[in-house]
Amino acid sequence: MKQFLNFINGEFVATSKTFENRAPVDNSVIGLVHEAGQAEVDAAVKAARAALAGDWGQLSVVKRVDMLNAVADEISRRFDEFLEAELADTGKPHSLASHIDIPRGAANFKIFADIIKNAPTESFQMTTPDGGTAISYGVRVPLGVVAVVCPWNLPLLLMTWKVGPALACGNAVIVKPSEETPATATLLGEVMNTVGIPKGVYNVVHGFGPNSAGEFLTRHPDVDGITFTGETRTGEAIMAAAAKGVRPVSFELGGKNAAVVFADADFEKAVAGVTRSAFENCGQVCLGTERVYVQRPIFEKFVNALKEKAEVLKIGPSNEPGVGLGPLISSEHKAKVLSYYAKAKAEGANVVTGGGTPTMSGKYAEGHFVQPTIWTGLPESSPIIREEIFGPCCHIAPFDTEEEAVRLANDTPYGLATSIWTSDLSTATRMANSVHVGLCWINSWFLRDLRTPFGGSKASGIGREGGVHSLEFYTDLRNVMIKI
Questions:
Q1: ∠ CA 84-90-95 to the nearest 5 degrees?
Q2: In a 3-state reduction of DSSP, which class is residue 361?
Q3: What's the pLDDT at 86?
Q4: Strands, E, within 256-386: which ranges?
Q5: Contact 443, 424 (CB under 8 A)
Q6: Residue 242: phi, psi to the nearest 5?
Q7: Catalytic residue flag (residue 404)
Q8: Is 437 helix (H, G, I), strand (E, B) or coil?
Q9: Nearest alpha carbon to residue 92 among 349, 329, 341, 268
Q10: H or E element in which residue 204 lies
Q11: What element of type H or E holds 399?
Q12: Which strand (E) or helix (H) includes residue 395?
């Protein structure tokens, strides 16, 4: 039985209170997770504070960068271990985790190591009232102790997306991974020790939200800032906790993302792109598409083409060749997604394909598998179209004019991402300027340059990550004025 321990001040720490970590693919017990209480969270924060006052706080940028590059190299050296841990925790297809999750998890350290070496600040010279001269310049200083609260859909990637820039800027972190996916955050502790990251710089506390590690960490008065990726409701609770002490937050929250397909789009590329955005990672992607709007002349053709793509997706465990759709993360999440499947049917949706669970054999019958599902025919007021489901499903509706497409895409409290499919550059540009989201893809989806801003608008988040934009949260910009 594996034991997933907390990692505090460079040491793995057991507790008397544990909970099960179950495999989504067959609901078997992977191991026991040691839940951190208030004492463990206090110890992690104290260790982080001591690291800032000690060796880590004294390191030059060059030495810090060398250490982060060593972290990335060690993740790559232990690629198979990280891959095995991620597959066990999430059940996602091998091809997805091996090409995205683990390589990006390592790359996040390297990209921010490069950025921090070259990040400029401003400098001005001015004439003083007495006729003298003054020089004013900016200095970036670490924010301090940063709480990193992570989701379960891309555990290593999204955790290092925050830890990478936080450490590059000289902060110390306490990571609270999702209770569903504790493995890779814990394994990263071994990497930190191997490459010589000072004790207390990287800490991990396991547990849940309310009255557990998540609440203890986000309410802790010695935590200087909180960064979180997850659902909007949890973000609201963390924001309330952060108000005590007026601590900064960086949030990437929920979405109900739209894809807009114009009649002049490259049809095959649009179908392939929406197939990915609706069904990849079993729909458990914050940037995924759950609302599809297709211009009326190609509406029926598009619905039939997407149906064909969905029905050839192979459902199964990550170790089977050709699997394109794994399980949902947990039995609770499966129940949630299936409740929306039932709701759509009750509301009179046309179920184009799916709408239930696949027949799985052997031990996989206990896994959290659902069918990729497509609906048409529901009104825009339906919860299926208004609420984030986070499963392998989408609703497709027709539109006639560009103005109508903009109105439909914007008719949501969320504002995370959209994808626009058209061969007309003028249409694409107008749509990109009109749809209220943080990320807009034209004739693509999930295409990322890590130097560019990442984040949501409206109820989808606060702040931006990526490139120099991450530095805005993980550092304080101090002004220095010298009277000559």
A1: 60
A2: coil
A3: 98
A4: 257-261, 289-295, 350-353, 373-376
A5: no
A6: -70, -20
A7: no
A8: coil
A9: 329
A10: strand 202-204
A11: strand 393-399
A12: strand 393-399
Could you tell me the domains of the chain?
Answer: 2-253+460-483 (3.40.605.10), 257-449 (3.40.309.10)
- The residue from 150, 286, 393, 394 that is catalytic is 286
State the pTM of this model.
0.96
pLDDT value of position 1: 86
pLDDT mean over 284-310: 98
Task: Verify whether residue 252 is a known catalytic residue.
Answer: yes
C-alpha torsion sign, points 456, 460, 462, 467: negative
Decide if 432 contacts 219 (C-beta within 8 A). no
Single-letter amino acid code for the residue at 360: M
Average pLDDT across the chain, whole number: 97
Task: Classify residue 315 by its DSSP letter.
Answer: B
Burial of residue 414 (CB within 10 Å: 0-12, 13-18, 19+) is buried
**Angle subtended by helix axes 425-434 and 402-410, to nearest 10:** 30
Residue 124 CB neighbour total at 10 angstroms = 11
| DSSP secondary structure letter of residue 266 | -
- Copy the structure tokens of residue 239: 């924001």
252, 280, 290, 465: the catalytic one is: 252
Type of residue numbered 411: D
Cα–Cα distance for residue pair 157/139, rounded to 1 Å: 29
Backbone angles phi, psi at 59, to 5 degrees: -70, 145
Q: Are 241 and 397 in contact (CB under 8 A)?
A: no
